[in-house]
Design a protein that fits this description.
Layout (H helix, E strand, L loop, with lengths): L2 H9 L4 E9 L4 E8 L14 E4 L5 E4 L7 E6 L3 E4 L3 E4 L13 H13 L2 H7 L4 H16 L9 E9 L4 E8 L4 E7 L3 H11 L2 H5 L3 E4 L3 H10 L4 E4 L1 H22 L2 H6 L3 H5 L8 H13 L1 H13 L8 H17 L3 H12 L1 H5 L9 H16 L6 H12 L16
Parallel strand pairs: 2-5, 8-11, 11-12
Antiparallel strand pairs: 1-2, 3-6, 4-5, 6-7, 8-9, 9-10
The structure holds zinc ion (ZN).
Length: 414
């Protein structure tokens, strides 16, 4: 067997043959001059054969998978052809996408590694600078997602997430039926969410959305009401509970500020305890909270109201839930606690959409589950420098498109 044939077998090169090889950089790089096996040059757009109009002499270089630590580089001078439909184009290259500087195989490995580890760790394995890897991944994902159409969206979820250590925000759009993330956009305002509805969905698609879930921000609720005329909006339960917990915590902080050292000691560790769901508390913890009735009436009142509020989620009839919520709001107003009165105001603004959970419980376990994955992805690189790399990792791990599946199947060797 000749050297070239042996190399071809070892490297498992498909659709190409090696014409020459040489080593470079103190034998750390293996360079291969290759050429595609084919009968005629084909158009990258339509795959039809074209007449060669120009024998390009300019060689292009592709990086391939490493071989035992050796960097492998492919060289070939693509020809220009004339396609009857697409005119003058560069012939298609079987081992790499158009304009790419790396082979499909390397693209596949980048995707496979980044799905399970940090970009930094993947960069180390692939022996390339993290910024290079991040750039390559971005190009893959942009190419695969280019022209992608969202399919059969019925239940949409909108949520915000912070990145860059809380200094920047992004808006995430979910398909809650499929448990996938459809879109990531910079910012959390109305403009951001409008961009999604205007750029990604047709009028017909918008009218086919039946359910929508989001937090209580006017940006999201406003956009959903405007763009999805046939959707029932359900406020995400998680956000209602979060707002109530914040209101209760404000009472605790206000008391903390007013108390002396001795009094503060008595309500120490309360922040965490007040935020707990009644089911997760121990008997001792509940007793401690009950004892507040004598030591700190105001916190006690706020806590009792918070615990009572939990019952709303047990209702399955809209009318009963409404009745309960109205009674609860009256009681909360009577407490004369400013932060709770403010919460009642928020609830009043979203009343219909909060009790809408009785129509369909969108209190999205799905969305929250996805959020957890997004957080893992976020923590993997402890702060991305920009939205692009953060968004890329989201699309790669929980996006609605299977990115690696778009790399030709014969070229996915790991
Ligand atoms: Zn063509």
């Amino acid at each position: 067997m000749s050297n070239l044939k042996l190399l071809n077998k070892i490297l498992r090169l498909k659709g190409m043959k090696i014409t020459r090889f040489w080593f470079k950089n103190r034998s750390k790089e293996l360079h291969l001059a290759v050429k595609p096996y084919k009968n005629g040059c084909r158009c990258p757009e339509c795959g039809r054969r074209g007449r060669i109009v120009h024998q390009t002499t300019e060689f292009r270089r592709w990086e391939d998978l490493t071989l035992m630590g050796l960097k492998v580089l492919l060289w070939y001078a693509p020809k220009e052809i004339h396609c009857p439909t697409h005119g003058r184009v560069q012939e298609t290259i079987p081992w790499a996408p158009a304009w790419s500087r790396i082979t499909y195989r390397l693209e596949w490995r980048i995707c496979a590694l980044c799905q399970i580890m940090t970009q930094k760790a993947a960069a180390e394995i692939l022996k390339m600078p993290p910024s290079t890897l991040s750039g390559l991944l971005h190009r893959i994902i942009t190419r695969v997602r280019d022209g992608h159409k969202i399919r059969a969206l019925v239940t949409v979820g909108v949520d915000e997430i912070s990145f860059l250590k809380g200094r920047k925000f992004a808006t995430l759009v979910y398909d809650l039926d499929r448990a996938r993330i459809l879109w990531v956009g910079l910012g959390k305002g109305r403009q951001t969410i409008d961009r999604f509805f205007n750029e990604c969905l047709s009028e017909g698609q918008k009218s086919r959305i039946r359910w929508a879930s989001c937090d209580m921000s006017r940006a999201y609720t406003g956009a959903i009401k405007h763009h999805c005329p046939n959707a029932t909006l359900v406020i995400d339960r998680f956000h209602v509970v979060k707002a109530l917990n914040q209101a209760v915590d404000e009472v605790r902080m206000e008391q903390w500020r007013a108390l002396d050292t001795e009094g503060r000691k008595a309500i120490k560790g309360l922040r965490w305890l007040l935020g707990m769901h009644s089911r997760s508390r121990t008997k001792g913890q509940s007793r401690f909270l009950n004892n507040l009735r004598n030591s700190n009436r105001r916190i006690h009142r706020a806590w009792v109201l918070k615990d009572e509020f939990e019952h709303i989620w047990n209702y399955s009839y809209r009318a009963s839930a409404e009745k309960f919520l109205k009674r609860w709001m009256t009681a909360a107003l009577r407490s004369r606690i400013p932060s709770l009165r403010q919460f009642v105001g928020t609830v009043r603004n979203h009343f219909d959409h909060i009790v809408a959970f009785t129509d369909r419980n969108l209190t999205n376990a799905v969305g929250e589950g996805l959020n957890r994955i997004v957080k893992i992805v976020k923590n993997r690189a402890s702060g991305y420098r920009n939205l692009n790399s953060f968004a890329d990792m989201i699309y790669l791990t929980v996006g609605d498109l299977n990115i690696p599946a778009h790399i030709p199947s014969g070229l996915r060797t790991l």
